[in-house]
Amino acid sequence: MKSLVVIDNEDRMDPAYNLAIEEFALRHMDPSKDYFLLYRNDSSVIVGRNQNILEEVNDFYIREKGIRILRRLSGGGTVYHDPGNLNFSFITRYEQSRLHNFAFFNEPLVKVLQSLGVPAEMNDRNDILVDGRKISGSAQFSSRGRMFSHGTLLFDADLEEVERTLDVRMSNINSKSHKSVRSRVANISEFLTPSMDILSFRQRLLEGMIAGGIRLTHYKPTDSDFRTIAAICNDRYRTWEWNIGRSPRFQIVRSQPYRSESVTLHLEVNKGVIEDVRFTTNNRENPDFSEISVKLKGIRYDRAHIDQLLNTHKRLLPEGVTANVLAGLLYGEDRD
Predict the structure, then answer these.
(1) In what order do the strands lie in the sheet with 68-71?
(2) pLDDT at 334
(3) What's the rounded mean pLDDT across residues 273-302?
């Protein structure tokens, strides 16, 4: 990359907007040019295209804190974003030699980090490490002769929140989703002398890329661009169907005591919707749960929807089973 057009996102921290502006650059901007985007997000969890959210996050904690979940176009693992995390994206023409060649894109960033006194290096999993701890992970996506290679730069992120948010509590899930690989992480700010804030770091990155021989020009989206970006936001990144419904099909088998024996839940979810649900005792259908099973089929596998349905149809619950208890079995919240 000899030249890049830096897209001005006006430091907007709406994760849906930033995912949409990246997709806009991929699909709608001049295909003869290569682009570069730097952005920050408000607190949010960004999952890979082929991931099951419930196998990646502490769903109870995320709902309690109101943290947004969004799905990106690229594969790879789940990441937590906050304003202390600087994200980058190279949007370029597609070349076979660039696909899976993360070093091609990340090496300029590594060199700038090293010039700032940060002993950064890439490992064989395409992460950027400092002293064995991960400060950056990357993923890619290609479509119609274009591609992007994007990733995170942990600058001054809340690492305790990263751990709490990605502390998976759901159990007994069986799926073919892509699972994240957890790594020890660190903030770049720990290794900088003298210290600087994240906006200064952003500027130093750009200056360092220029010093490394990359010509940078700048582009500010027009009103027409913003209308297209807003449409992408509304059609994809603000929708339940994309963010949640795109989770791969999965099954859950989970038991809990019921009267003098136990009841076992057999649940199948496809595209975020309960496709099949059965309750058995001693490997036989338990008739006490048959009526509520009928009501559960076809609804979103979402705690709010499950709570609403169970509370609406309390009369269909087996004697001695409360809506909250059954919701806990269905949604599998393993709390401390």
Answers:
(1) 68-71, 44-47, 79-81
(2) 46
(3) 96
Average pLDDT over residues 266-271: 96
The whole-number pLDDT of residue 332 equals: 77
Among 90, 86, 88, 73, residue whose Cα is nearest residue 5: 90
CA-wise closest residue to 13 among 36, 37, 38, 42: 42
β-pair type (68-71, 44-47): parallel
pTM over 0.90: yes
**117-122 long-range contacts, CB within 8 A, separation 24+:** 117/191, 117/192, 117/193, 118/188, 118/191, 118/192, 119/191
Q: How many CA atoms lie within 13 A of 99 on its CB side?
A: 11
Which residue's entry shows tokens 């890979």? 48
pLDDT at position 333? 60
Distance CA 263, CA 282 (A): 8
| Structural domains of the chain, with CATH | 3-243 (3.30.930.10), 250-331 (3.30.390.50)
